[in-house]
């Protein structure tokens, strides 16, 4: 948990910030910002949330909490809020360091909105994935497809842009969020063009929540 | 108000619980009155855990209705402050201490109590600062019981409460249950220890293969099956009365009139000067009813 939640994203972020000139050359500063956001989102938030929920289900703590008056959303919030807050603090700290060494983002407010939308999507995907994850050990495998896919999409979109294969890149999980982060960091794109990019991300939130409602289990399979 | 006070604490009507094609509970109907200790017993896979999980609010019913205090058990905010649940398996966070666990679960349940008082009831005061992960199995069961009785709830579910407990802890647990019942609490019990159900339950329901085969007081259940008189005779003794059968081993007389038939047998033995070796007369026990259910010769429900 310490590795996925803290060490891995910090090491990856340190590498990207240290080699920022090389990465900016193949993409842009906005591309680096997007990869940093998705690194934190995939490891600190998504993987850790899946692992936490699987562990709490396996040791029957979820069932224990459901034997109280607490509602299901309250239970999920209580267990995952520390994970989400840690991810937000990490993202703010890492992007703060990146901004200090490479220059401030063009639109901080919209950047914050895009990071928030990205994290909500990753959290919703975590709930869905937790439904397919029987144990914390299994989480090491079940989280790989989405965590690797979102980081790969962020890299692909961040480096190549969305001039080609626009629709595909935008509907992939994290594609439009990456484009939005790149725009808000680099600047030069009107708000009317950037804001619609929130829609695919929010659509993924809806898809993930529908999946979570179908897949999430509160007790181990008997 | 008066009408509400007269309602049963638990009302289950035509409850069905299915997992895909498998029907775990079939058309279960039962009521538990205020202050009762109702034991729901059954063979492995009988459906009692599935039924209780619906009554506790842990699982939705496939069909049928369940009311607890007149409310849906799924409405946790309405029913859980009045209901304590001792789960079959603990499910505590290993990193929390005993006192922290009781405080967390007790408060989340919407009840108020003193953690010290509850730990004293289950004799865990010395372990208050110990992490749950370091407790023995029996201590975890006592911690589970502590969270169930925190705040002296009106309804308490005890799922296999004494499994893994030593005799002293069992006695202490039943003493605490007795004290709660004295103050009006209702208890729903599941256990594999039939003698505990026989000793403590006001009424017992016996489930088998998803259906409630019979329910009633211990006396009502046991009088539906005959008691047994057993003895052996010396070679050459006359044929005993009362249709005593001897398929193998000792003679056996099955009777619903144990006292009268025992007297007849003793009178016969006196008359013919016969020794009844190894004479025993055993009333019907709950085990016998349980076995009859398993072999599908169960009596019909009494009420």
Structure description:
The complex is a heterodimer of chains A (222) and B (303). With 222 residues, chain A is an all-alpha fold. Chain A is 80% helix and 0% strand. Chain A has helices at residues 2-18, 20-26, 29-58, 61-66, 72-102, 108-130, 136-142, 144-160, 166-171, 175-186, 191-194, 198-215. The relative contact order of chain A is 0.16. With 303 residues, chain B is an alpha/beta fold. Helix content of chain B is 33%, strand content 25%. Chain B contains eleven helices and twelve strands. Chain B has helices at residues 2-6, 48-56, 76-79, 98-108, 115-121, 137-149, 167-182, 194-200, 218-222, 258-272, 286-294, and strands at 10-19, 22-32, 37-42, 63-68, 83-86, 155-159, 186-190, 203-208, 211-216, 227-232, 251-255, 277-282. In chain B, α4 (98-108) runs parallel beside α6 (137-149). Chain B starts with a helix and ends in a 9-residue tail after the last helix. Residues 1-5 of chain B have low confidence and may be disordered. The chains are: A mainly alpha (222), B alpha/beta (303). The interface between A and B is medium-sized, with 14 and 18 residues.
């Amino acid at each position: 948990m310490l590795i996925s939640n803290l060490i891995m994203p910090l090491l990856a972020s340190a590498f990207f910030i240290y080699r920022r000139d090389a990465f900016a050359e193949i993409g842009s500063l906005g591309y680096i910002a997007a990869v940093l956001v998705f690194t934190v989102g995939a490891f600190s938030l998504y993987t850790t949330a899946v692992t936490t929920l699987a562990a709490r289900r396996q040791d029957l703590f979820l069932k224990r909490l459901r034997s109280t008056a607490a509602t299901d959303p309250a239970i999920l919030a209580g267990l995952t809020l520390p994970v989400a807050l840690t991810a937000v603090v990490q993202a703010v700290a890492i992007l703060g360091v990146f901004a200090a060494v490479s220059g401030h983002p063009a639109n901080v407010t919209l950047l914050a909105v895009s990071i928030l939308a990205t994290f909500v999507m990753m959290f919703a995907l975590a709930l869905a994935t937790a439904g397919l994850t029987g144990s914390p050990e299994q989480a090491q495998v079940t989280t790989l497809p989405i965590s690797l896919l979102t980081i790969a999409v962020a890299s692909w979109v961040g480096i190549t842009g969305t001039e080609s294969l626009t629709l595909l890149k935008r509907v992939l999980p994290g594609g439009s969020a990456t484009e939005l982060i790149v725009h808000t960091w680099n600047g030069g794109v009107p708000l009317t063009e950037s804001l619609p990019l929130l829609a695919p991300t929010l659509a993924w939130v809806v898809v993930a929540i529908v999946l979570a409602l179908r897949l999430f289990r509160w007790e181990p399979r008997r | 108000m008066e009408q509400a006070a007269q309602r049963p604490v638990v009302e289950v009507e035509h409850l069905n619980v299915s997992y895909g094609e498998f029907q775990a509970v079939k058309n279960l109907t039962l009521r538990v009155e205020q202050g009762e200790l109702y034991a729901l017993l059954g063979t492995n896979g009988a459906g009692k855990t599935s039924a209780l999980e619906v009554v506790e609010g842990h699982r939705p019913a496939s069909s049928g209705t369940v009311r607890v205090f007149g409310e849906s058990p799924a409405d946790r905010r309405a029913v859980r402050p009045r209901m304590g649940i001792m789960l079959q398996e603990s499910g505590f966070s290993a990193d929390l201490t005993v006192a922290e666990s009781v405080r967390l679960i007790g408060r989340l349940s919407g009840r108020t109590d003193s953690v010290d008082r509850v730990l004293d009831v289950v004799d865990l005061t010395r372990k208050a600062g110990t992490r749950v992960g370091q407790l023995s199995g029996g201590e975890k069961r006592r911690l589970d019981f502590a969270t169930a009785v925190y705040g002296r709830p009106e309804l308490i579910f005890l799922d296999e409460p004494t499994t893994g407990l030593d005799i002293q802890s069992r006695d202490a647990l039943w003493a605490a249950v007795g004290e709660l019942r004295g103050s009006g609490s209702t208890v729903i019990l599941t256990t594999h220890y039939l003698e505990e159900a026989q000793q403590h339950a006001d009424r017992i329901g016996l489930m088998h293969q998803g259906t409630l085969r019979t329910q009633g007081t211990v006396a009502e259940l046991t009088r539906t099956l005959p008691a047994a008189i057993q003895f052996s005779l010396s070679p050459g003794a006359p044929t005993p009365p009362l249709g005593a059968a001897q398929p193998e081993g000792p003679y056996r007389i099955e009777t619903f009139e144990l006292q009268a038939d025992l007297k007849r047998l003793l009178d016969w033995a006196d008359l013919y000067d016969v020794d009844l070796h190894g004479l025993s007369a055993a009333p019907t026990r709950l085990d016998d009813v349980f076995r009859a259910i398993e072999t599908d010769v169960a009596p019909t429900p009494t009420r």
